[in-house]
Amino acid sequence: MNKKLKTTVSTLIMAVASISIAIYAFKATQPEAFHRISDGFAMEEKTPSPDPSVKKQKGHQVIAYYFHTTFRCTTCFTMEQLTQKAILTGFPNELKNGRLVWKVINVDEKENEHYVKYYKLYTKSVIVADIKDGAQVRWKNLKDIWNLVDDEKAFTRYIQDETQSYLGKS
Asked: Which of 7, 130, 132, 159 would suit a FRET pair with 44, their CA atoms being 20 to 30 Å apart?
């Protein structure tokens, strides 16, 4: 084997080993709740909610969040408006009786930064969270909002269906 090939192979092996060690170290330092999360869904197990307002809640409640940053484009504003419209028109009784709560949160504000890590946010997002007796039992990032933003009817149906699936579970 020539020297250049040996050097290349050695470099690749070191890179793979370094990446493996970094991934292991990252996972080992994460809270236990991190390990129960798969594809944006929390398993049916109570975990502390990142939202301080839910700790005092009794019974079943669903929270629909729209998370954004200070800088937003037209599409981001459209997603917020469509989500709000879907929630307000689809669930007026649930909003009125407090079973469903609609929140818009700017994660660039210091008091809201913790949501980014908790929900693994990397862009503007709609999250539906299921709260039972002040503890979050599951949540879902509605990632298809980006694919459906140009189709208001499909977008609305998606938001309402996902929200209803959380309201339907008691």
From this structure: 159
Token pair in block for residue 112: 């809201």
Distance CA 49, CA 55 (A): 8
Confidence check: pLDDT of 35 > 60: no
CATH classification of 35-167 is 3.40.30.10, yes or no? yes
Every domain of the chain and the residues it spans: 1-30, 35-167
Distance separating the N- and C-terminal Cα atoms of the chain: 66
Read off the DSSP letter of residue 127. E
CB 139 within 8 A of CB 130: yes
C-beta separation of 141 from 162 below 8 A: no
> Starting from the edge strand earliest in sequence, which strands make up the sheet with 135-141, in order?
100-106, 60-68, 125-132, 135-141
The CA distances from residue 20 to 25, 26, 27, 32, 123, in Å, are: 9, 10, 11, 20, 26
Q: In this predicted model, what pLDDT tens digit does every residue of 113-154 receive, in sequence order? A: 989 998 899 899 999 999 888 888 899 999 999 999 999 999
